[in-house]
Amino acid sequence: MKYIYLFILGLLITLNGNIHAFAAETIDLPIYSTSYDDQRDPFKDAVAAIKLAKKTNRNVIIEIGGNWCTWCHKMDNFLEKNPDIYQQLHSKYVLLKINVSDTNENEEFMKSLPPVLGYPHMYVSTSSGKMLLSKDTAELLDDNHYSKEHWLAFINKWQVEETNELIKVNKNESD
Prior knowledge:
This protein is of the alpha+beta class and 175 residues long.
């Protein structure tokens, strides 16, 4: 009986991992949203991301990092293991991953952004290209692990509806 219980427990753990992977794969994402690629043109990808964001009424998250970046992999693993957050992220934002590495620092593109504080680093932009936020992803950590609560707060705060309200409030205050 004990062996049957262990077998079933092992099966459930395996299925649970596969469900997470399946949930992450069910969203059809552009290539610039899924990987850091030192061969891609970040300007072309940014134009495509902004076009998609306009079409789908979303903001853009520009994620700076690379395949060499341990914390970038940890963040990707966190999102893969939390399909609810992964789904919200990609339904409320267009993600644009920009590679920065020894083989391609994408210097010209990076000049147009505020300074990077560490990797991965994220920026939130409207679909018209207005920069809203420069975000150190360490702020999404709790006890040295990515936090569901911090991620959900970030996703909800900077989505289109919330940023439109924030822009209106700031405009009214400056009038």
